[in-house]
Amino acid sequence: DQKKPVSAGNTLTERQQKYGSAAYRPWTKDLDEELKSMYYRGTRIKEIAAHFNRSQGAILARVAKLGLDEL
């Protein structure tokens, strides 16, 4: 049973370095509530991303998953 070689940039650590240290970590209920609060206050996505140390794409995906963009 041979392991496949890992491509450059595909390890969790490399992705976290590229996208932020919180990248690929699960969202908790508390983080979701904090995100909702910031989103409802009108905080810019760029600022929310910096706050959570995640990419803007990750924030937008979570906003969509939580249905916040449907309000």
Q: How far apart, in Å, are the first and last alpha carbons?
A: 50 Å
Apparent shape: elongated
Number of strands: 0
Q: Please work out how many helical segments DSSP would assign.
A: 4
Overall pLDDT level: 83
> Which structural category fits the helices and strands?
mainly alpha
Poorly predicted runs: none
Summarize the main sheet.
none
Question: Quaternary status of these chains?
Answer: single chain
**Beta-strand percentage range:** under 5%
Q: Gyration radius, to the nearest Å?
A: 15 Å
Query: Into which percent range does the helicity of residues fall?
Result: 40-55%
Element-level helix/strand string: HHHH
List the helices and strands and how they pair.
Layout lengths: L11 H8 L9 H12 L4 H8 L3 H10 L6
Overview of this structure, please?
By secondary structure, the chain is mainly alpha-helical. Helix content is 54%, strand content 0%. Helix 3 (45-52) packs across helix 4.
Question: What does this entry show, briefly?
Answer:
By secondary structure, the protein is mainly α.
Descriptive keywords:
single chain, 71 residues, mainly alpha, 4 helices, 54% helix, 0% strand, elongated
